[in-house]
Design brief:
The complex is a heterodimer. Chain A is α+β, with helices and mostly antiparallel strands. Chain A folds into three domains: 146 residues; 87 residues; 124 residues, no CATH class. Chain A is 60% helix and 23% strand. In chain A, strands 1, 2, 3, 4, 5, 6, 7, 8 and 9 form a nine-stranded antiparallel beta sheet that branches. The termini of chain A are far apart. Chain B is built from three helices and no strands. The longest helix of chain B is centred in the first third of the chain and has 27 residues. Chain B is elongated. The chains are: A alpha+beta, B mainly alpha. At the A-B interface, helix 1, helix 2, helix 3, helix 5 and helix 7 of A face helix 1, helix 2 and helix 3 of B.
């Protein structure tokens, strides 16, 4: 009886112990699988180098003494090395596939064709592996190895291009994560300012943050331009390397930007001002029609709108360029004709109607988009890319989820 | 002997479960800044690791096996 109870207790406790692994998000789970695949790849790569060294040794022996036995040994060593090499490149493709899963910033509909493409490469490599396996003599082996080699040369440029695409998306997702946080922080700073609290130092750090994040964005955009140039077998490694350097510089700026956010949050908290960052996300939207955003954070208007922007009375608005500002009877404010602007606040509403809408909404709340255009969301664990139509799309900034229609 | 094994297993499981409960409790606390910024830091670290790995030169040259052996 006591043993049975103990068994039950152990089972229950073990169940509780594995919950953290199960409760990890899809990106964390994919990242763990990526690390595992990377370790397997490195092991296989080591085996491939060893098998190739063996092949070169046996080939030297055969060159010195061309006996049938030495030739048979050479065919065997060549086959083993080619199979190992094939296993490495297949594993590389598998690892890249998992990395696609683990990459934040790309939507499911952007990932799906990448999965299909990489799966196609894996299938073709596996078929070529069978040809190598079935090679019965030196000529057949060299032919099969040659086909494999040419196929690898053919796909490796594209694989590097995909890798660069993932890196850019990843860096961009980090930018948007920080933008989401700073949306909430800016709203909170504005709230403190409205309550008469001196926020000079916070705003100074915020300016530094914005400067760093702008520099990071520029480097990431430069790297993105390079991705399109990874097209031929001669220059792709060099261009890929340049893109990596751009991203590395971008990462340094992102680290600096993150440090400024830490300074701000730390300072606010040390003075007893709470600031909640969880439940934040961003939305980027471009198009014509209407964008109705409600929530807490910041709405950046990135380009002149051929139309109007209505803002709730509790929002703080800064504008750039010439335009008309009209106070409405209900306390709302209408803006027309400005070049760009920024709306900040807690529980605010920004209602934009017209053509040429280009916005970045950061913080928490919802965005309802109607008309024609495209959007991209960066939620805490979900990234959606899509188009908005007359039927409308409603996005939750925090989660990144988008539902059809007007909520 | 059996009782010892059960007792040891219990100790291990209690330790694992305690860790798990603490982990869950922490992850369910509303983040007030530090934790969330830490997650952005982790993303950057993972990105840097990925860049380091992908910037390495790997030699997959099957050409010498398919080429002339003589």
């Amino acid at each position: 009886m006591r043993t049975k109870i103990a068994t039950l207790v152990i089972s229950a406790l073990m169940l509780v112990a594995i919950v953290p692994a199960v409760s990890a998000g899809p990106f964390e789970e994919a990242q763990a699988r990526y690390l595992y695949a990377k370790a397997e790849l490195l092991e296989l790569y080591s085996e491939w180098l060893s098998a190739r060294a063996d092949f070169l040794q046996v080939r030297a022996r055969w060159r010195g003494d061309r006996t049938d036995q030495n030739l048979a040994d050479l065919v065997q060593a060549g086959k083993e090395a080619t199979l190992k090499g094939c296993d490495v490149v297949i594993k590389y493709c598998e690892m890249l596939r998992v990395q696609v899963e683990a990459t934040r910033g790309l939507s499911d509909n952007e990932k799906a064709p990448l999965y299909d493409e990489i799966d196609g490469y894996i299938s073709e490599l596996q078929a070529k592996r069978v040809s190598v396996q079935n090679a019965g003599n030196a000529q057949e082996l060299r032919t099969a190895a040659g086909e494999l080699w040419r196929y690898w040369l053919q796909i490796r440029v594209r694989l590097k291009q995909i890798t660069a695409q993932l890196i850019v998306a990843w860096a961009d997702a980090v930018v948007q994560r920080l933008e989401a946080f700073v949306g909430r922080i800016e709203a909170r700073i504005q709230q403190l300012k409205d309550n008469g609290i001196d926020t000079t130092s916070l705003e100074g750090w915020l300016d530094e943050f914005n400067s760093k994040i702008d520099s990071a964005k520029q480097r990431i955009a430069d790297a993105e331009n390079k991705v399109g140039q990874i097209t031929d077998d001669i220059t792709f490694i060099e261009i890929f390397g340049t893109a990596i350097r751009e991203i590395r510089e971008g990462v340094l700026y992102l680290r600096d930007a993150l440090k400024r956010l830490r300074d701000i949050v730390s300072d606010m908290r040390s003075k007893g001002h709470t600031v909640t960052l969880s439940g934040s996300g961003t939305l980027i939207g471009h198009g014509d029609g209407r964008a109705y955003i409600s929530g807490t954070g910041v709405v950046h208007v990135l380009a002149p709108i051929q139309g109007t922007m209505l803002v709730s009375p509790n929002a703080n608005v800064t504008t750039v360029g010439e335009g008309t500002k009209t106070m409405l009877e209900n306390g709302w404010v209408q803006y027309q004709g400005y070049g760009s602007g920024m709306v900040t606040g807690t529980d605010i509403v920004v209602d934009i109607s017209g053509n040429g809408i280009s916005i970045l909404a950061a913080g928490t709340g919802t965005a309802v988009l109607t008309g024609t255009g495209w959007y991209r969301t960066y939620g805490e664990n979900r990234y959606v890319y899509g188009t908005w139509t007359a039927a409308g799309a409603t996005a939750d900034l925090a989660t990144g989820e988008v539902s059809a229609g007007v909520a | 002997m059996n009782k010892t094994i059960v007792a040891l297993a219990l100790i291990v499981c209690v330790a694992a479960a305690t860790t798990a409960v603490i982990y869950i409790a922490k992850s369910r606390q509303p983040a007030q800044g530090g934790d969330e910024l830490g997650s952005a830091d982790s993303l950057l670290k993972e990105l840097e690791d990925f860049l380091d790995f992908e910037n390495q030169e790997f030699d997959y040259n099957f050409g010498e096996i398919s080429g002339d052996w003589g």
